[in-house]
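Hi Y.,

Following your request, here is the sequence exactly as I used it, all 219 residues.
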Amino acid sequence: MNDSELMVLPLVVRIERAAPPERTDALEAAAMAVLSLLDDPGEWTDELHAWQSTGKIRKVVRRARGAEWRRASALPGRTVEHRTAEVRVHPPVPLDAWPRDLARLQVSGTELTDTGELGPAEAPVLWANPGLSMSAGKAMAQAGHAAQLAWWASDRAERDAWRERGLTVSARTAAPDDFAALVAAGLPVVRDAGFTEIEPGSCTFVAEAPWLYGRVSRP
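Below is the corresponding structure, written out as tokens. Let me know if you'd prefer a different format.
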């Protein structure tokens, strides 16, 4: 196994006790943070290429607050602010060589809820599998996967138009019958590797946009 197969993309979500983000905002912010790095890796081009080269796009979401968030923000990376959520994406790192101030952050316990009604969804929509129970951190990583697969499946003109809209996405939970149809529609589908929480091979998210239909081979 080479080093690129052992790399991971770190994401950190800010969760202050007094004002945690809405769950959907956090999912969308995570996806947008991933898209920001894919669209413009800047000085991290080599790390991004190494991470993507095998197609094993592993992501880990950790949570921070207060001084933890300030330390994470001082490390190389990029913060996306989206409504109530702040998510910072850091350049890919070897799985066993996280920066100390990221490695000490907690993965578990990232539980968030939506306290209000969600607005209309706008494409691309990242549809979560209603039959799976995922923590907010797990769902954020999976939403990031879905956004990345949608980016890969889009052509240059579609990416340009997406960029003009701010690389926004909508994250929603699909109805059971709708999710099965989406999986079969030739859209980008996330199948989990099974490292945490759910069974290997589970379909966690589908990315839907008018231009994405039929872009991916049906299962």
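The first helix runs from residue 23 to 39.

Thanks again,
Q.
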